[in-house]
Design goal:
The chain is α+β, with helices and mostly antiparallel strands. The protein is 54% helix and 16% strand.
């Protein structure tokens, strides 16, 4: 079973906004970009169609590692399409 164990905030939008405010920032925007799923689709397409050699070179031509990383990205893609994870945009200025 896969989990997103490294994510510890219950509600990123509310919690991160509060952390920014507590740090002396005025939050001007806190929103879901609505583009994360599309971006992961693009990354996976690029890796499978165009950049396979470059990706393999970066990881020392370790094909099992490439396959494992692709599986993790596919997992994230499925979560993004299901609305379970998103790309946030936070804009804040220090008071």
């Amino acid at each position: 079973m896969k989990t997103l164990a490294t994510i510890t905030l219950d509600n990123v939008k509310a919690d991160y906004t509060r952390l920014l405010a507590d740090s002396g920032c005025e939050v001007r925007a806190a929103e879901n970009t609505g583009q994360f799923a599309r971006h992961i689709d693009l990354y996976l397409d690029m890796l499978s169609m165009q950049l396979s050699y470059d990706a393999l070179r970066i990881i020392g031509f370790d094909v099992p590692l490439k396959n494992a990383l692709a599986a993790e990205m596919a997992f994230a893609r499925d979560l993004a399409h299901a609305g379970k994870i998103a790309q946030g945009r936070f804009v804040a200025v220090r008071r």
